[in-house]
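Incident log, structure service

09:12 report received: a user says their structure output differs between two submissions of the same chain.
09:20 pulled the input from the user's history:
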Amino acid sequence: MTTTTNAPEYVALRDSAPPAERTRRRPLRPGRVALYALLVAGALSAIFPILWMISGSMQSLPELLKGDSLLPAVPQWQNFATAWVKGDLAVYLTNSVVYTLCAVAGILLVSSLAGYALARIQFRGKAIFTALILAVMIIPAPAMFLAQYKVLLALDLANTRQGYILILITSGIPISTLIMRSFFASQPVDLEEAASLDGASALRTFFSIMLPLAKPGLAAVAVIQAFAVWNEYLMALVIFNDTSLMPVQRGLTSFVSAETPQPQILLAATLISIVPVLVFYLFAQRQIVDGISAGAIK
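09:34 re-ran on a clean worker, output below:
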């Protein structure tokens, strides 16, 4: 004789069971433990330099040179004030923010249009044009400084913000165009055909339909180029004669001297200089992850 249990009563008994009885933990395999240990080690290796920089920026010079403690005995908050005033960081940070915003905006506009053309428009010499873009990416940036500077001299744009921003835009276009090309090529053509049947022009289709679909690609390009522009310094040395036009890296070099070393002030200035980058990452981290994930899938 068999007994049956009503479904509602069985579900109630199952849900009332202790969590340990309902779910069994999977045993940790040696391979998984090794993977977790490797990830933790990698995270610590990435975090430790930042922690050391924060600690060093709040230490005195003798304490920093002694190097026997990670935590400062007495935090030297005046290091940040000294870095801000003596390094003219207010001027240099403003310059870097302006250069980064303008350059990234220009790169996004040009590379998205060029990437869409390479993905959708069929024209003679398309393969050669793509190969030329790849060839330009192989050339080291310092090798093009002289030619770029001569062009700026001919256009009367040397030692100007406009000239520097144009150089930054042209330097970031090749790789950004290829990234955007891959995103547009992965989109279905049916959307554009439907827009064309509705009477939309090519530009209307691009800005209203295709560009919103490429938001992950735009985010990936924005992140890559924002960091590249923010950290650029060599071309600024070539173009600018006026130090008031220099980016934030110029302020950091103010504390690099063999005669009067100030490593604690340099660390404080470096910490100040990365604050805008951290703020940008905190506000755009979701778009960054989506862009990188979409790019990896493609």
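09:41 both user submissions now match this output. Likely a transient worker issue. Closing.
09:42 reviewer note: Confidence is low (pLDDT under 50) at residues 1-5. The radius of gyration is 27 Å.
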